[in-house]
Design goal:
single chain, mainly alpha, 0% strand
């Protein structure tokens, strides 16, 4: 996935009123931040994360809740060598978002980011 692919995906979600404009803007910034971290224009298998992220942010804006991921999965991801970098990417998202993200959403983002970093060989770790 590259920035053009992301923008096409976000436009579809915006046009369909599935996500908010603010969520799309944060997702775009998060994607370009990750491109910089990984030093890659094409991020392999980024579609799931960058569909989940704007939808999660839109859910938060609408005050909708989501169930937490399975604890065993979360424990495994937290023990991953990619968890620290994933945490830094999530911190960046939170710096763009007004208010704290719910723990359940943070946990899902951690899973998505750690997987993505692993697939893309961990960036500059």
């Amino acid at each position: 996935m590259n920035l053009t692919d992301l923008n096409e995906r976000l436009d579809i979600l915006l046009t369909s009123a599935v996500i908010t404009k603010k969520a799309a803007e944060v997702a775009t910034s998060a994607f370009t931040h990750l491109q910089s971290t990984l030093k890659k224009d094409e991020i392999d298998q980024a579609e799931m994360l960058f569909t989940h992220l704007p939808m999660a942010l839109s859910r938060i804006e609408k005050e909708e809740k989501v169930e937490a991921p399975h604890p065993d999965m979360l424990t495994e991801v937290k023990n991953s060598p990619y968890a620290p970098q994933a945490g830094r990417e999530i911190d960046y998202i939170q710096s763009l978002w007004s208010g704290r993200l719910p723990q359940e959403e943070l946990d899902y983002l951690l899973i998505h980011y750690a997987t993505l970093l692993q697939v893309n060989e961990g960036g500059n770790e």
